[in-house]
Amino acid sequence: MTVDNHDLVAALRAAMKENARLKRRNATADDPVAVVGMACRYPGDADSPAALWRLVAEGRDAITGFPEDRGWDMDAVYHPDPAHPGTSYVRTGGFLSTATEFDPRFFNVGRRDALAMDPQQRLLLEGTWEALEEAGIDPDTLRGSATGVFAGAMFQDYAWVARSRADQVAGRWGTGTLGSFVSGRVAYTFGFEGPALTVDTACSSSLVATHLAMQSLRRGESSLAVVGGVTVLATPSVFVEFSRQRALSPDGRCRAFADAADGTGWAEGMGVLVLERLSDARRNGHRVHAVLRGSAINQDGASNGMTAPNGPAQERVIRAALADAGLSAADVDAVEGHGTATTLGDPIEVQALQAAYGDPGERPLWLGSLKSNIGHTQAAAGVGGIIKMICALRAERLPATLHVDRPTGKVDWSRGRVRLLTEERAWPRTDERVRRAGVSSFGASGTNAHVIVEEPPPSERPASRPSTGGPLVWPVSGRMPSGLAAQARRLGEWVRAHPDADPLDVAFSLATTRATLSHRAAVVGRTRDDLWAGLDRVAAGQAAPGVLLPTRARPGSVAFVVPGPDGRHPDGVRELLAAEPAFARRMEECAEALAPYTDGNVLDAVGEAPGTPALERAVSFAVTVSLAALWRAYGVEPDAVLAAPGGEAAAEVIAGRRTLTEAARALTEAPADAEPLAESVRARLAEGFQAFLDIGLRPTLTDALTAAVSAAGGDPDDFLITRPTGGDATPGHTAFLRSLAQAHVGGVRVDWRPLFDGRGARAVPLPTYPFQRQRYWLTERAPERTPDRPAVPAGPAEGETRRGGTYTQLLRRAHVEHAISEAVPLLAAASRFQPSFASTAELAGSARSVLVADGAPDPVVVCVPSFLAGSGPHQFARLAAELRPRLRTSALVLPGFGRSAPLPKSWSAAVDAMAEATAEAAGGAPFFLVGHSVGGLMARAVAERLLRSGTRARGVAMIDTYDIDDAEEREALFVWAMSEILDRDPTGVVVNDENLMAMGAYVRLYAEWEPVEVDVPTLAVRAVAPEASHGAPVDPTWKAADAAEPVPADHFSILEDRAPTTARVLGAWFDRVRTDSPRRA
Questions:
Q1: CA atoms of 936 and 644, how far apart (whole Å)
Q2: Do the domain assignments include residue 769?
Q3: How many CB atoms are closer than 10 A to CB 898?
Q4: CA proximity to 443, closest of 201, 185, 614
Q5: Considering the domain boundaries, does residue 1052 fall inside one?
Q6: Where is each Ketosynthase family 3 (KS3) domain found (predicted)?
Q7: pLDDT band per the 50, 70, 90 thresholds, residue 1070
Q8: Which of the following is catalytic: 203, 254, 590, 863?
């Protein structure tokens, strides 16, 4: 048999690749696992690891009465007799004060999804974000990575609550409440592509999840792991169930390992760790909180009972964890015990520890339990124990275990080295010994886990760093405007509380370890006082020099605008030469290219008195070309380069149309005629450009650019036009950074890393994102509660009063109580008794349409809003402004909307009125109809009515219009959309009694609507972004359309932030229809 050389070479290559893979796997198999990030929420308002440690170190007890915000019937649940059926003899526990709250907008979750979603999913989403931020990892950078999710969760009793309100969660119940979605929701939301597992081994769930995550990292399945556990008690059922077994402490407190132990006490909590192989953590520069040296899991098997603990199994799992860590029992100083305070379980656990951890002649093994402070958090207990021990390592002390009268008498404490922590003990760091602790969790179903936590290895001594003078940028952002303000406020408070924090390190951390969210601001300054004062202004929404606030602009394409020579070169250029290597390198290249054509050295002439005109032109050319290189060094790449008069040569180099040498030669020639800047801007606007970045240091082009945008029919506030601030009072480097910050705030992607090159900046642990939470809980009761944090305006809180008429207050109250579907029939009924019209002749004087944007009348665009209160012509303003070329665009005022406007008596009367208004707005010109939401159905009805009278629309575009036959789905859609509108209008600006009456009439008349066939082109524009599953209960597909185009948006942003994309889609379709068959002309 002969072997082909090609096959032999291929086989050898494959073998070498496999050998390399095995080597990598073997190298990681023994790599310890590092904890690089932590987050938690436990009873006692322990909403961070630091807060949890304060609670434990201060010896506080977090047990309280049953929560009053979950609809629990206290009178029916509690009975002091343990034998009483269906009741609990306990009415205290460890509860989370914010378990009913969530910030759905931050995670692009709609109202219905938020209500249907198990609060355990919601907590884990927030905990994951916080843990990644605490780790110094921008969560957005992990999208598409092999990050794994390992979540412990054991209760799904929110499913019972959700099932009782099935009308509100139809189509969302499964994804909202099934256990698999606890981990799956995190992976989906963050875009993680490693393993995603929900682990339910009862009380040991989170520690078993930690073990599995460690294995996944060592096997190379995961590059990073988010691991944790979560427990929220949506109902009191676990109290009722364990009351039958008489297993609960009557006062809800865990007297762990105490002689007075009288049962466990249930609690809630959430803990999240971010794990990484230690070698990767060091390479990535992540701070290591602790090392998880080893772990093990096993099972009780056929022991004394299904839920009875098995001492020998516990001993075996501890020995296996020590073996996995390569340690002996003497290498461990302390154990965070399971310690549920049951009279059976605690003695068995102590005896297993005694057997596994050695004889009394060795140093003590200190035993404690977090459950004595906060209760038994069940699936979140193990990870809470890890967080507690990491904090203890950092604080160099072991906290006392509470509620111990004396150690349990059911154990011979003299037999081993185990000692109960009845008082705080010092745990100092020494050079002779590495400090370690074991953490135990033993599940009621028999699955046991033990993890060895080790203090982090000594960090490398930071190298001395050069002087950190010079300007800095502190970028901050929020998902919503309120989130941005709260973020700035929280950061300002942190800066005040940490006077030793270096502004350079804060800037570096904000720029490189935080996600850039949609609402942005930035502070540019040189001193700590500059920066924190700027944060105060951001929080208050006050602009100032060096304080850049959010703009209306959300650019797509970016243009560099090159200034002409102004005969002056600020001293700041020399500052840029010293501070920015990319600028200096390009200046040197320019100087070399220009040398043969100038009568002096360009670099020497910078900042000096004006020289000859030729030298001045050369210096200006070099500075401008070098500034463009500097913008590019910070990651800003233009899609076009425009030039002011005199800047053409530099623009051609920047755009890559000429080399430096060619441009240097051309500077000696008379300039060729160039396109005026205004015409260049107009052309770019027609192509959809929205960002015009003046790359100079002085504000010489701002007025010209603003005038050019206005002359082209645009609102300058809708576009990003940077305004340089350089001059005698502002150094060049500061001026450049302010311009860069303007671009960043306006939506341009900026890479801030060059600002920190060579400056020795270090990441510091900044405060995490201030979620803007609101109540989302499926109960009829929502008692008044004073919020302890800023909140996104949404529905009113219980007991809150608002301005507005009777109907407005009625609907807002229904919104709070999740009962809009019950309130709308009342509005519909009330609308019958309002003034009405049966024919259009009765509408004299009523508003018909509003001119939203003026422009060419070929074609005219007529927009039709939804009939939901809060909708109207104002919704189309952004879309109209984005249409290119600018077209005359009107929007109908639906009959009945507005003060004292009569309501239509029939659907036909409403369509007749809209048809007349449309013809009037078109003025005889060709026209397209554009409808949003249910306005798409009305636009189609108007087109059919006009066609009957001999007027043909060129086409009908239906923007995110839902095609629903089922009455229940239609009602669910209405409730969802109205809820979103109320959330967006918290102060009643557009939702008022008059509009609610009109909406009620249309809801009533909608029963008369029937689909119509219309012989005009129809386009369905659909919102298809991941966040478009924002709670809309149905698939937004209009079957009658003969064309469909997707837009990455949700139901509302399709006319707001995503309006430029929607406008481009419509513009392209208008062009296609106009050039299509005669039928469509």
A1: 45
A2: no
A3: 14
A4: 201
A5: yes
A6: 30-455
A7: very high
A8: 203
Decide if 376 is catalytic. Answer: yes
Contact (Cβ atoms closer than 8 angstroms) between residue 855 and residue 889: yes
914, amino acid identity: M
Residues 868 and 999 sit within 8 Å (Cβ to Cβ): yes
Q: Which amino acid is at 594?
A: L
Contacts 24+ apart (CB under 8 A), 462-465: 462/760, 462/762, 463/760, 464/760, 465/759, 465/760, 465/761
Do 938 and 896 share a structural domain? yes
CA distance 392 to 630: 47
**Does the pLDDT at position 1029 exceed 60?**
no
Residues 778, 161: contact at Cβ < 8 Å? yes
- The CATH number of the domain holding residue 516 is 3.30.70.3290
One domain, residues 614 and 544: no
CA–CA gap between residue 120 and residue 230 (Å, rounded): 6
The structure tokens 């809009």 sit at 820
Report angle CA 749, 755, 757 to the nearest 5 degrees: 125
Instruction: Say which of 286, 289, 338, 569 is annotated catalytic.
Output: 338
Q: Where are the alpha helices (DSSP H) in 849-966?
A: 877-882, 907-922, 935-948
Residue 154 exposure: Cα atoms within 13 Å on the Cβ side:
24
Confidence of residue 728 (pLDDT cuts 50, 70, 90): low
* DSSP-based three-state secondary structure for 904: strand
How many structural domains is the chain composed of? 4
Choice among 106-115, 353-362, 741-750, 774-783 with the minimum mean pLDDT: 774-783
**Where a domain ends, among 405, 422, 454?**
454
Helix residue spans in 690-763 (DSSP H): 702-711, 732-745
Same domain, 332 and 362: yes
Examine the domain organization and report whether 594 and 670 are in the same domain.
yes
DSSP 8-state symbol, 840:
G
Residues 566 and 544 in one domain: no
Structural contact between residues 693 and 559, judged by C-beta atoms closer than 8 angstroms = yes
**Residues 565 and 526 grouped into a single domain:** no
How high is the mean pLDDT of the chain?
87
Note whether 872 and 949 are same-domain residues.
yes
**pLDDT of res. 1034:** 39
The model's pTM is 0.73
pLDDT-based confidence at 123, cuts 50/70/90? very high
**Separation CA 485–CA 791 (nearest Å):** 11
Q: Is 818 a catalytic residue?
A: no
* Token code pair at residue 959: 């923007």
Annotated catalytic, 1051? Answer: no
Residues paired with residue 366 on neighbouring β-strands, in sequence order: 334, 419
Residue 471 identity: P
> Between the CA of residue 920 and those of 851, 871, 907, 915, 1001, what are the distances in Å?
12, 22, 20, 9, 24
- The secondary structure of 297-355 as a DSSP string is EEE--S-SSSSS--HHHHHHHHHHHHHHHT--GGG--EEE------TTHHHHHHHHHHH
Which H or E run includes 291? strand 290-299
For residue 6, being part of any structural domain is answered with: no
Domain range for 908 is: 809-1025+1043-1076
Closest CA to 1051 of 986, 983, 961, 966: 961
Catalytic residue among 211, 286, 289, 376: 376
* CB environment 1061-1077: b (16+ within 10 A), e (fewer): bbbbbbbebbeebeeee
CATH of the domain at 587: 3.40.366.10
- Per DSSP, 759 falls in state T
Asked, for residue 371, whether it belongs to a domain, the answer is yes
Residue 848, pLDDT > 60, answer yes
Give the pairing type, strands 856-864 and 927-932: parallel
Q: What is the mean pLDDT of residues 725-739?
A: 80
The greatest distance separating any two alpha carbons of the chain, rounded to the nearest whole angstrom, comes to 103
Q: Which of 503, 529, 548 is the last residue of a domain?
A: 548
